[in-house]
Amino acid sequence: MRLSSRWGPSASTLVAALAVAVLLPRHSAVAARQLPADLRLTADRAEAFIEARERHLNYLPGEVIVKFKPGVSLEGEQHALMALRSRPDANDLQWNGDFAVLRDASQPDAAILAQQLASQPEVLYAEPNYIAPIPKGYIGGEVEPTPPGFRRLGVPSDPDYNARQWNFVDIGLPRAWDIQPGGSSSVIVAVIDTGLTLARQTMTFPLSNGATIQNQNLAFDVSPDLATSKMVSPFDFAFFIAGSPVVDMDSHGTHVTSTIAESTNNAFGLAGVAYNVQIMPVKVCVSYWEVAIVRASSNNPVLPPADAGGCAFSAIANGIRYAADHGAKVMNISLGGDSPSTAIRDALLYAVQQGAFVAIAAGNEFENGNPTTYPAGYSDIDGVMAVGATGRSRTRAFYSSTGSFVEIAAPGGNSRDGGTAGEVWQITMRQTSVLPSAITPRFDIYDEVPFQGTSMATPHVAGVAALLYSQLGAAAKPALIEQMLRTSALDLGSKGKDNEFGYGLIQPRTALFGVGIRK
Question: Which of 303, 328, 372, 472 has the fewest beta carbons closer than 10 A?
Fold first, then answer.
């Protein structure tokens, strides 16, 4: 079954297209290679993402995050910057809330820059602008949906729920929906990720085929199973400097969002955990296609590496603070890197102080050295939980990172435990249309697609947290939500909290009913 857009052009579509045309004017084939100056992703920064991947760096070359001590004047900032060989101008700092990003092309080793700045008396901290890679959870080729099976009593009417969403059955969601059916529309869940396409239009960008650069008309459309009416305060911290339009050129953010809030009981597609809540799409990552577009705009026909792109820690920190300031009560962060960050830790502390619970993917690195990933490593903050992944057999998924920072587990899928049927299925963009191997990408065709990863486990926890906020109302606090999820979890592995499953497998109905009540 092909799940393409269900809507044709409309007057609102044409108005939106004209609005975006201000940012993306159509020119001749040569002139259109020059993208507007108001793109957040500049040519230099796109090359920095490429260099980071090619050199296996975990930071953007030449970029540091710096926070000055309270009360430091512009003159004091300039004094601190004079410690650097290039002696940059303090007026050129790019401010992001209470910290700034410094870009210094003369010293690509960001660790050196950070060390030099951190030693200055005016500086509270300085750190490289680390990168979280976009997790790649897609396994296998295109898979066509199976015919819808029969509908069991108490499960949603979505036709492929029974055939595919073992993960919801495994944690007893239908019984939890009996108590809190889909959550409240007053609850906002922020998805801090690769974005979610909210534009129904065609945009013109330059792209290379490896030899020549041509203008390409790229089609964008919204998911047919995510109602735009429940999208609030979207913002782009990665690509468009204006913050809009928000689009997903990867599909990761769309898949994650679908687990949280895919439209349910609409006799179409699949279901979501908290299908009535509002979603705040916060784009903090650039994928292969954004990098390829900007490289082509510089008349460079060489294709970027297939894994080019990523999520700058400065953008993630900004995204967290933005979501907290715009009313998010739950945040989902299915991203992580291997370096700690004071900027992100401070942002998480701010988020919980503003009343937001944060679910963070524990990482997929068990077979790659099993490092602690960040921001999951900050699960010591009350109201922040790091989420590990399980498969159909309720064993740890082979990739799921372990450590004392893991606090809870949820279904993330495991291709070694049932193949693609044992992964997490949601509607997202067709993979053959958005992978780097696509000749011309399309962002307007949607399929039911299996992904696996702690990225897929985390939105289960975010969704259940949204159900709890809906149930508790004003009494809900981030630390209380965490306590309820911990206490109600089904113990797996070693007795008590362990490094694989934390406190155990999430149990939505038990949490909603109250601590210790399991029937």
Answer: 472
Give pLDDT tens digits for 244-291.
999 999 999 999 999 999 999 999 999 999 999 999 999 999 999 999
Spatial distance between the Cα atoms of 51 and 65, rounded to a whole number of angstroms: 19
| CATH number assigned to the domain with residue range 182-513, chosen from the 4 options 3.40.50.200, 3.40.309.10, 3.40.630.30, 3.30.420.40 | 3.40.50.200
Burial bucket for residue 243 (CB in 10 Å: 0-12, 13-18, 19+): middle
Helix (H, G, I), strand (E, B) or coil at 152: coil
Residue ranges matching CATH 3.30.70 in the chain: 43-132
- What is the C-alpha R_g of the chain? 22
Cis geometry, peptide bond prior to residue 245 (ω within 30 degrees of 0): yes
What is the spatial distance between Cα 178 and Cα 509, in angstroms, rounded to a whole number?
Answer: 9
Q: Boundaries of CATH 3.40.50.200 in the chain?
A: 182-513
Query: Quick one: tokens of 107?
Result: 């010293």
Q: Supply the DSSP string of 442-492, one letter for each residue.
A: -BSEEEEEEE-SHHHHHHHHHHHHHHHHHHHGGG--HHHHHHHHHHHSBP-
Please give the Cα distance from 461 to 231 (Å, whole number): 20
Query: How many Å is the maximal CA-CA distance in the chain?
Result: 71
Task: Give domain 43-132's CATH architecture.
Answer: 2-Layer Sandwich (3.30)
Could you identify the residue written with the tokens 């926890």?
461
pTM: 0.91
Q: Which two tokens stand for residue 206?
A: 């330059």
Task: Residue 189: name the closest of 288, 272, 310 by CA.
Answer: 272
Instruction: Calculate helix-pair angle for 454-472, 478-488, nearest 10 degrees.
Output: 110
Residue from 388, 372, 373, 380 nearest 352 by CA: 380
